[in-house]
Design brief:
This protein is α+β, with helices and mostly antiparallel strands and about 170 residues long. It has three helices and eight strands; from the N terminus they run E-E-E-E-H-E-E-E-E-H-H. Helices cover about 25% and strands about 35% of the residues. An eight-stranded antiparallel sheet has the order 1-2-3-4-6-7-8-5. The longest helix is centred in the middle third of the chain and has 20 residues.
Length: about 170
């Protein structure tokens, strides 16, 4: 398993078309995920075709990176599936095209069995925080989300197995 800054690479679980993480989406971001045990992390260099103004990353792409890392924090840290109820993004500094950024997601609060508050932080290559987000996520049981037909069967089986066995996913 690969490591980066003390964080271990998390398994890729689906061959999906998700814009944020799907390896099958030729126009997507294809994010890779790591964890240090308390957060989920990803490093990414935004290509030029995702610019807003000249040399700046589009705000919608920044929001997508933050939403994706928070969703993965929900999946790997809570071992749960869900959907974004709302997300609030504060843009603090410009993010430049072609520079490596780090996005980090962590659980702030599990409100109940159906809702969690998650935080996302996007930093530039100098470690300066450029954007922060908080989101409320609706949690679904694997059975409920399976009935919706939105997740691959192998992901549901893996999630059921890790939950039933009480397996530790993270380092």
């Amino acid at each position: 398993m690969q490591e980066r800054e003390g964080a271990k690479k998390l398994p890729d679980l689906e061959n999906s078309y998700c814009f944020g993480c799907g390896p099958s989406n030729q126009h997507g971001l294809k994010m890779q995920f790591y964890s240090d045990g308390t957060s989920v992390l990803s490093w990414f260099t935004v290509p030029e075709h995702y610019c807003g103004w000249k040399n700046l990353v589009h705000g919608g792409v920044i929001s997508t990176l933050l939403d994706e890392i928070m969703g993965r924090a929900m999946f790997y840290l809570l071992r749960n599936l869900g959907m974004t109820r709302n997300i609030f993004v504060d843009f603090l500094q410009p993010v430049f095209i072609g520079t490596e950024i780090k996005v980090q997601g962590r659980i702030l609060e599990v409100k109940n069995t159906r809702e969690a508050m998650i935080e996302g932080i996007l930093s530039n290559e100098n470690g300066e925080v450029c954007a922060k987000a908080k989101g409320n996520y609706i949690l679904f049981s694997p059975d409920k989300i399976g009935k919706m037909g939105t997740v691959a069967d192998d992901v549901l089986k893996w999630l059921d197995h890790t939950r039933a066995a009480g397996l530790k996913i993270l380092p």
